[in-house]
Amino acid sequence: MSLTGTPLFATAVALTAIAVVLPLLVWSKVRGPAVVRVAARGLMLVFAQVTAVALVFVAVNRDMNFYASWGDLFGTGKYVTAAPDLGPDGLGGKKAEQVREEPKVRQKFEPVEGLGGRVQKTELDGKISGVKGDVMVWLPPQYDDPAYKDKKFPVVELIPGIPGTGKSWFQGLHAHEVLEPLMKEGKVAPFILVSPRAMLLGNADTGCANITGKVNADSWFSVDVRKMVTDNFRASDEARTWGVAGYSAGAYCAAKLAVLHPDRYSAAVSLSGYNDPGQEPSSLVAQDPELRRTHNLKHLLKTAPTPPAVALWMSGAEHDGYLSGTDLKGIAQAPTTVHAEKVTGGHNLESWSKQLPQTFDWLTKTVKAP
Hints:
Layout (H helix, E strand, L loop, with lengths): L5 H21 L7 H31 L5 H5 L21 H6 L8 E2 L7 E7 L6 E7 L16 E5 L8 H5 L2 H10 L7 E5 L13 E2 L3 E2 H16 L9 E6 L1 H12 L6 E5 L17 H6 L2 H7 L7 E6 L5 H10 L5 E6 L6 H6 L1 H11 L4
Parallel strand pairs: 4-5, 4-8, 8-9, 9-10, 10-11
Antiparallel strand pairs: 1-2, 2-3, 3-5, 6-7
């Protein structure tokens, strides 16, 4: 039974209804010694509370898609097949040109249930990263327009928070519903939206890092997913045509990927992010003091051989992303640019969804068309 399917939701509703009605019907009819009557009535109350909590969880998860499967919920999903040392560039000794020229791998895509058919999903076997996972792709309305049949499109990679799935950007933030009318009106560029699986090792946050022997999350996002897109869609692999965006833990990832790989991304949007990976309790990077230090965004900017040619948008409440942005802005050197935007609304999907028109207007002006 699917964690996000209708059968489980209907079962939770039915059990909750039974848990409410049962005490009304049998409360005064319980027989036996006092201890038995107290225990039976106590169990009915506990049953009612458990089913109510379960119903709320199932309903919220169906709406927000924090966990796509039982494996996600219990941390038993297997998505890492190998995690060798891929070197500082995450290419495993290959040159970028070699990766680019490798034979194209055509993926099979299927519509994602409940999202209107324009959001597609594929299972990607990451040849460089050793990660196997699902990737969601949404094509802009212009993609199938005959007038654009020879055009390539810019891309924005979308990274969810923890917990969260690729579907969270579409079902939780409603990114495609917010952006499609703006694209049709010409107010936002016709971006291809790509949202890969981010929960790769149980419920832990990988910090989008390559950690030898554990996971090569950086290479999953910045190498394998990018190549899948250029192999299967009309998109360029030029950094100037790619942006990356994330919220919460995904916001940290988005900014870090752009700072580390200006040859792959030209811009990043960080919604309620942070600079110190230790701010995410489940962070694998933060478990190692040295990794935590070297993966801090301030450290990455300060120690970059040359300032990366990337633009960062960092927004949030004062202590929920905004001050992290001002910290980076204070140390950034040209050609790196940082825009810090203070917002209200809290650390939640609704707040981030409301920021999409503004942030994608900025991306339209920053990320170039192929």
